[in-house]
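Justification of computing resources. Each target in the renewal requires a structure prediction run like the one illustrated here; the chain below, 222 residues long, is used simply to show the kind of job we budget for.
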Amino acid sequence: MEILIAEDEIRIADSLKKNFLQSGHHAIIAKDGEETLSMLHKIQFDLLLLDWRMPKLSGLEVCRKIRSGGSEIPIILLTALTDISNKVEALNAGADDYITKPFSFTEVMARINAVARRYKSSANSIVFGDNTLNLITRVVTTPKTQIKLTDKEFDLLKFFLDNRGIIISKELICEKVWNLPFSPKTNIVEAAVKNLRKKLEETTEQKFIKTIYGEGYIFFGD
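Resulting structure tokens:
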């Protein structure tokens, strides 16, 4: 992800940039509102992390200019202001989210991932990482190719995506995916998870499904 950090506090900006780079993203810093708008005209960014109080042009002014110009780039405002009226003002200016200082990088990434999903996903698809599950064709599209799924693999993947980051028991998978009120003595769940995991890992070279022994499975993938 290409991220523009519009923040005049060097310590905060440098810390964010360092963490983004360590997380596999690319980040550039803009130190005031005018420089932010200039960079947005020159470079295609995936997201703007925008400080509210900056020199030359405030974050709100930058946000309004971006939206009035027709850009739909995801914008998250950073501010020390905590009043609910400030949050309303930020959202009305066109921001997609609002983070109050001080913040942790974990919170920043969680907000970024949530905003990115809203932009990438539609009623007919679910995005995970660089991949998209089409809910109509039941095909996973990756940057390199497409993955065809069986009916149960599709149902299983969608159930994982709807519950990503949560440990899901084999019994619950049986109930929700196979419509069985109990866990059968056969290994249908294990077999289906194994086949789905193999298809995803061989094609994307990423590990999305982790087995939590004695508890079930957990799906990672924003």
